[in-house]
Specification:
binds 4'-deoxy-4'-aminopyridoxal-5'-phosphate; 7-stranded mixed sheet; binds glutamine; alpha/beta; 4-stranded antiparallel sheet; 14 helices
């Protein structure tokens, strides 16, 4: 075969940056501050719940929509944290991580030719799944203001909507910028969805990682949004078990039924015993969630201080696992290609980071930015910072 066998609509998607950078970290024995995965296990009692489920013989296919324990735990969690009511039998669907939930939602709801509005920088699977569905994306930039807080221009968001727009994808807390959308911003997005009769697809996998006393605001809680929102989350980040891939979707029975129709032919089901374990995690007391965010906030502070000290221009994240930092003050702005630079970082100083440029359509906006993950043990963060400092000094 002489030509590229990959379908045309996927040809612009190479290997995801996370796989590339994690392999690079292993190959070069670098400190891996790239892919967002903790280097320690989550709560032991959650792991014990998975082990107990395996020992109890919960090892065959779970029901298509997920085991009742998980669906009820998700519904209780929605009520407890956001005062939202979802029927665990008709309005909750378990998925293979948020990743499958996003893919199934796009495939179920978007016709070829439809448009989906995304904020850029965007998590890479959004663009790929929009393309798989034969739809196209319209991006609205998030740009830092004078204080380094990422914002969108309401006029640009409005202008991105056309009569072909089917949905807006709304990710808060936002990967990679760490932005937590404010009440005002959330209300504005909701108002536009209603005005233009759009579906909102929300990615809330970092819902429990909001810092400095901020609150996470699900878009579905806005007036008029319950009937038009597909709310997606997952247990990977909240319980530090990213490899288990237990996610879920909450929506109306009609939207859930649509997403389920696509989902059943992607994985059918996954992770039976882990569904019980994440159900256990979702029911843990408030103290767990508070201690988790406190620990991650301290790590954020550490990495922000370290990167600043190393000479980066740092955008302090309001949530998530990640801090974005501009390398231009260290290496200059000209002739700087973020992807090449990230690929050379192990050689320069033995650290792996993710180049934000891969999350932009307007490449210039992210050209000199790197994303560093702080969901790591303190000594590793310290070592990473120490190594990055040597680069500034050279
Ligand atoms: N959305 C965002 C914004 C993410 O950062 C990630 C990475 N965990 C995902 C979705 C995928 O989540 P999961 O691992 O549950 O598939
Ligand atoms: N969400 C993680 C990140 O942003 C990675 C997940 C993945 O590798 N697909 O780093």
């Amino acid at each position: 075969m002489t030509t590229n066998p990959l379908v045309e609509r996927m040809q612009s998607f190479g290997t995801t940056i996370f796989a590339e950078m994690s392999s690079l970290a292993v190959a070069t024995e670098s400190v891996n501050l790239g892919q967002g995965m903790p280097d320690t296990d989550g709560p032991l009692e959650v792991a014990e719940a998975a082990i107990a489920a395996i020992r109890d013989g919960k090892n065959q296919y779970p029901p298509l929509i997920g085991v009742p324990e998980l669906r009820h735990a998700v519904a209780e969690h929605q009520k407890r944290f956001y005062a939202l009511d979802f029927d665990p039998d008709t309005e909750v669907l378990a998925t293979a991580g948020a990743t499958e939930a996003i893919a199934a939602t796009m495939l179920a709801l978007c016709e070829p030719g439809d448009e989906v509005v995304l904020f850029e920088p965007y998590y890479d699977s959004y663009a790929a799944t929009v393309a798989l569905a034969g739809a196209s994306r319209k991006v609205v930039p998030l740009r830092p203001d004078a204080e380094g807080r990422y914002e969108f221009d309401p006029a640009e968001l409005r202008a991105a909507i056309s009569d072909r727009t089917k949905a807006i994808l709304f990710n808060t807390p936002h990967n990679p910028t760490g932005k937590v959308f404010t009440a005002e911003e959330t209300a504005f997005v909701a108002a536009l969805c209603i005005e233009h009769d759009l579906i909102a697809i929300t990615d809330e996998v970092y819902e429990h990682l909001v810092f400095d006393g901020r609150v996470h605001r699900p878009l579905v809680a806005e007036p008029g949004m319950r009937e038009r929102t597909v709310q997606i989350s997952s247990g990977g980040k909240t319980f530090s078990y990213t490899g288990w891939k237990i996610g879920w979707v909450c929506s109306t029975p009609e939207l859930i039924s649509a997403v389920r129709t696509a989902k059943q032919f992607l994985t059918y089901v996954n992770g039976g015993p882990f569904q019980y374990a994440i159900a256990h995690g979702l029911r843990m007391p408030d103290a767990y969630f508070a201690a988790f965010v406190e620990d991650m906030q301290a790590k954020r502070d550490m990495l922000v201080a370290g990167l600043t000290d190393a000479g980066f221009d740092v955008f302090v994240p309001e949530g998530t696992y990640f801090v974005t930092a501009d390398a231009a003050p260290i290496v200059g702005h000209d002739d700087f290609d973020g992807l090449d630079f990230a690929r050379s970082l192990p050689e320069r100083c033995g650290v792996v980071a993710v180049p934000n440029v891969v999350f932009y359509d307007n490449k210039e906006l992210g050209r000199t930015l790197l994303r560093f993950a702080f969901c790591k043990q303190v000594p590793l963060l310290e070592e990473g910072v120490r190594r990055l400092r040597t680069m500034g000094a050279s």
